């Protein structure tokens, strides 16, 4: 097709503002999907996506409307997948910005708008859910005008659920959106350059790439090369998604489609890489590629050690489709064999955990999530640790650096004080304060580790659910950090060890020992729970022993006989205390996620 008749666009929005529903109505209106095959959130193919009501994996689809070819990419909205969103935005020329009429602009809306502006995209503002009684269209219009500098008549009010005015959005895309030729003029070279904006592993077909062709043409059965990964493969099939796979003989400049390859893992074709022809390679790759690294780590252990191989096989299978997933074996004296897995964020971790439990029927114990730390030793050696248990002896360490994030919170103006107090509690610092109509935008910096546990829950609690939060990794900074070890009945439990700032150590130690006292069951002997930094105990709680009345069988009031039995019981408990083992339940390893600041 002539590139002048192609429109490539994506839908961006905060979570739950209705972008997947809008995509459904567009497919219905353009006749891409027949009414009988239609279901809500059609592009969200995973059961987990439909259940949680969020988009986890992006999905492209080709539609035809009034003689134009419309290529839509439905992007994920969560901060954990922001790199995927940025690559999707690079693959298109236009972004349809969807804002909920009842909630207004939220943190992820802002983050995605900034990404779209960075890519010089044409932005078409849309207000969704205008038919709801709680909709405040005029107020949201004011927010959009303030944010984008657009005119009021350029904003389209729709109801994605009922289909109201969705045709106006399609007309606006045709009229306002530039064609690929307008945005990316013809390169001097006709050599193939295609951007990979997503990839996944198909059990029967191998790795499937979703690509946007920027230069040249890709024919079926061509030998291709991934420029960043320096891997070669074969394009066994090329085509477009409608949303089912529709094979074609070739993909041309300006088009968005898929390539079925003979590659065995997505690590050979990562998101952001440039595809070119092996025999006629392009000179320069497309800009913006980066290797996405995880910065949240957690230990995954099977409840039964017999399931370790099943867990390892399951993670290996999931990692074929998820190049950001990294793992290595881990051994704990208490939990046995398991894996330490790296994630892009807490939602990413939650999704992988749910998939392991549902798809592979695994019963798992998961340790408290932590981040990675960079360490400089006294001899100048550089180390990176992913678990507090891996920290070398404190006397050999010259400096420990922890990751800091740049955060952005949008909150009603009358709740700024509560949010600033929370940021200070987390060792953060406010960097900027601005306003969009009646909402405040708070920019801040904070240590990643302090936001990992219950920051989001506390933020929602302190703002009655009105705040929205977005963050990105900033840099690593040297801090006075220590490792807190936890001892149960005198035995050090490596899986419970955490890193924290020295100023917070005693409060955290007391808090966690109290939590452990609640979840570890009582024994027939007294159990000491201790928090320690090195050899110094900083907090202690005691779980009292069960007391069996051994004198119940004595029917007389003989004091000597009672004393003899009680002494025998005392000696038995002392022996138990030396040799007894405490069974630690799985909830003990996630107490950090349930912390409360009383």
Model description:
With 598 residues, this protein is an alpha+beta fold. It has five domains: 3-183, P-loop containing nucleotide triphosphate hydrolases (Rossmann fold); 193-277, Translation factors (Elongation Factor Tu (Ef-tu), domain 3, Beta Barrel); 296-366, Elongation Factor G (Translational Gtpase), domain 3 (Alpha-Beta Plaits); 374-478, Alpha-Beta Plaits (2-Layer Sandwich); 482-594, 2-Layer Sandwich (Alpha-Beta Plaits). The protein contains 14 helices and 30 strands. The strands form six sheets. The protein has a six-stranded mixed sheet, with helices on both faces. The longest helix has 21 residues, at 559-579. The model is unreliable at 41-46 (pLDDT under 50).
Walk me through the topology.
Layout: E1 6-13, H1 19-29, H2 47-52, E2 59-65, E3 68-74, H3 82-90, E4 94-100, H4 107-118, E5 122-128, H5 137-148, E6 156-157, H6 166-176, H7 180-183, E7 193-202, E8 206-215, E9 218-219, E10 223-226, E11 231-241, E12 245-248, E13 250-251, E14 256-261, E15 274-277, E16 296-302, H8 308-321, E17 326-332, E18 336-343, H9 346-359, E19 364-366, E20 373-377, E21 382-385, E22 397-412, H10 416-425, E23 429-436, E24 439-447, H11 448-451, H12 455-462, E25 468-478, E26 481-488, E27 491-492, E28 498-501, H13 505-519, E29 527-533, E30 536-543, H14 559-579
Parallel strand pairs: 1-3, 1-4, 4-5, 5-6
Antiparallel strand pairs: 2-3, 7-8, 7-15, 8-14, 9-13, 10-11, 10-15, 11-12, 11-14, 16-18, 16-19, 17-18, 20-21, 20-22, 22-24, 22-25, 23-24, 26-27, 26-28, 26-29, 29-30
């Amino acid at each position: 097709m002539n590139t002048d008749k192609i429109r490539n666009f994506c839908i961006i929005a905060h979570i739950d503002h209705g972008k997947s529903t809008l995509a459904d109505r567009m497919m219905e209106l353009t006749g891409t999907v027949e009414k009988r095959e239609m279901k809500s959130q059609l592009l969200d193919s995973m059961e987990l996506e439909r259940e949680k009501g969020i988009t986890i994996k992006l999905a492209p689809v080709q539609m035809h409307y009034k003689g134009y070819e419309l290529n839509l990419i439905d992007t994920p909205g969560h901060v954990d997948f922001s790199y995927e969103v940025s690559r999707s935005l690079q693959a298109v020329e236009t972004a349809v910005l969807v804002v909920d009429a009842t909630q207004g602009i939220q943190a992820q809306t802002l983050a995605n708008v900034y990404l779209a502006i960075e890519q010089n995209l044409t932005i078409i503002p849309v207000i969704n859910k205008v038919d709801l009684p709680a909709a405040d269209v005029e107020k949201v219009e004011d927010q959009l005008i303030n944010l984008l500098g657009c005119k009021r008549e350029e904003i389209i009010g729709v109801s994605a659920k009922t289909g109201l005015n969705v045709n106006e959005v399609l007309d606006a895309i045709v009229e306002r959106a530039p064609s690929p030729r307008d945005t990316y003029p013809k390169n001097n070279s006709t050599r193939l350059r295609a951007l990979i904006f997503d990839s996944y592993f198909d059990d029967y077909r191998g790795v499937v790439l979703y690509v946007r062709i920027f230069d040249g043409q890709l024919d079926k059965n061509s030998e291709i090369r991934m420029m960043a990964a320096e891997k070669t493969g074969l394009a066994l099939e090329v085509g477009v998604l409608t949303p089912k796979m529709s094979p074609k003989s070739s993909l041309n400049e300006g088009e968005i489609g898929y390539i079925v390859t003979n590659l065995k893992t997505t690590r050979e074709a990562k998101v952001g890489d440039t595809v070119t022809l092996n025999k006629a390679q392009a000179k320069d790759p497309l800009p913006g590629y980066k290797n996405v690294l995880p910065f949240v780590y957690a230990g995954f252990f099977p409840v039964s050690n017999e399931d370790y191989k099943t867990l390892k096989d399951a993670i290996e299978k999931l990692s074929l489709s998820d190049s950001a997933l990294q793992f290595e074996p881990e051994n704990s004296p208490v939990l046995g064999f398991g894996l330490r897995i790296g994630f892009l964020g807490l939602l990413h971790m939650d999704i992988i955990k749910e998939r392991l439990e549902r798809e592979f029927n695994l019963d798992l114990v998961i340790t408290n999530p932590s981040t990675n730390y960079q360490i400089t030793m006294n001899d100048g050696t550089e180390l990176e640790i992913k678990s507090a248990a891996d920290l070398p002896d404190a006397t050999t360490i010259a400096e420990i650096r922890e990751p800091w994030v740049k955060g952005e919170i949008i909150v009603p103006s009358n709740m700024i004080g509560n949010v600033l107090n929370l940021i200070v509690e987390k060792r953060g610092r406010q960097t900027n304060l601005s306003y969009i109509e009646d909402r405040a935008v708070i920019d801040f910096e904070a240590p990643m580790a302090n936001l990992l546990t219950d920051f989001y829950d506390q933020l929602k609690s302190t703002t009655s659910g009105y705040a929205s939060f977005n963050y990105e990794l900033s840099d690593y900074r040297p801090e006075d950090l220590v490792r807190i070890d936890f001892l149960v009945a005198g035995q050090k439990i490596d899986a419970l060890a955490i890193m924290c700032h020295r100023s917070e150590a005693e409060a955290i130690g007391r808090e966690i020992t109290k939590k452990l006292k609640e979840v570890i069951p009582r024994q027939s002997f007294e159990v000491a729970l201790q928090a320690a930094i090195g050899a110094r105990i900083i907090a202690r709680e005691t779980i009292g022993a069960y007391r069996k009345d051994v004198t119940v069988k004595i029917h007389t009031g003989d004091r000597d006989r009672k004393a003899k039995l009680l002494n025998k019981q005392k000696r038995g408990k002392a022996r138990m205390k030396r040799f007894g083992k405490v069974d630690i339940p799985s909830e003990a390893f996630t107490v950090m996620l349930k912390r409360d600041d009383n």
